[in-house]
């Protein structure tokens, strides 16, 4: 089996494109980046990714945790939460959804490779 298809949900454009480039070079099929929870939900419905690299703080009215909760209602994609914030309440909300991982930024292809090989 090949490497999984990964959707990048990241509201910081430069970070999103940098992660996209790294993952593509590492052989992953990459979708996105998208910047809002609403775009993430729509992308999952259209692209059916295997993994979602989900930033917690997003543009728009929905954070990444709420987007992941809504996505889990119709998709079996694994969620990897990514954040640049050290906020215990956010972490507890995210971990309630049983993600594959909860990572602190910066995150690159080597982090994802290591995580998915376990």
Descriptive overview:
This protein is α/β, with parallel strands linked by helices and 118 residues long. It has one domain: Rossmann fold, CATH 3.40.50.2300. 42% of the residues lie in helices and 22% in strands. It has five helices and five strands, in the order βαβαβαβαβα. It has a five-stranded parallel beta sheet with strand order 2-1-3-4-5, with helices on both faces. α2 runs parallel beside α3. The protein is globular and about 35 Å long. The chain starts with a strand and ends with a helix. The mean pLDDT is 93.
Q: Topology of this structure?
A:
Elements (H helix, E strand, L loop, with lengths): L4 E5 L3 H13 L3 E6 L2 H11 L3 E5 L8 H9 L5 E6 L4 H8 L5 E4 L4 H9 L1
Parallel strand pairs: 1-2, 1-3, 3-4, 4-5
Helix pairs in contact: 2-3
Percent helix: 40-55%
Second CATH tier, the architecture: 3-Layer(aba) Sandwich
Q: In this structure, how is the largest beta sheet organized?
A: 5 strands, parallel
Portion in strands: 15-25%
Distance between the termini: 15 Å
Structural class: alpha/beta
**What is the CA-based Rg, rounded?**
13 Å
| Tally of DSSP β-strands | 5
Brief rundown of the structure:
This protein has 118 residues and is α/β, with parallel strands linked by helices.
Q: Keywords for this structure?
A:
single chain; 118 residues; alpha/beta; Rossmann fold; 5-stranded parallel beta sheet; 5 helices; 42% helix; globular
